[in-house]
Amino acid sequence: MNWLIAIIGLTxxxxxxLGAYLEFRPLTDGARAQRWWKGTLAGxxxxxxxxxxxxxxxxxxxxxxxxxxAAHGEISTGLGLALLGAGLPTGLAAFGAGLAxxxxxxxxxxxxxxKPEMFGRTLIYLGxxxxxxxxxxxxxxxxxxxxA
Length: 148
Prior knowledge:
Helices cover 88% and strands 0% of the residues. It has four helices and no strands. The chain starts with a helix and ends with a helix.
């Protein structure tokens, strides 16, 4: 099971390294860059998805056995995975809220500069976009209540 975790970690480090490399040395040839991006992204996603699913399928029995045999107060692999899973809604909801607030905020500033009386409406739209993150936080709190 450790080799699957190593593959996932190396894939993530490779993705981060590739992003840093392309930040400092961007590809200039459009057609070559597009083909290169597609192959690299597909390969990275495929390795990550296969390794993650393999880890889940091969490690689930081990994690559940450790959780059942764990002494009181110790964190087993199963409990650790449950806590990570409980934190995912907040992280993903915050990411989605960030994606929503960016364009809505830019459009709001453009409208307010032309029509200042539209300020209240734009706040409502920003609040709706930001509410996504609050829903994720609520789901995480509910999941933590079920785990503990």
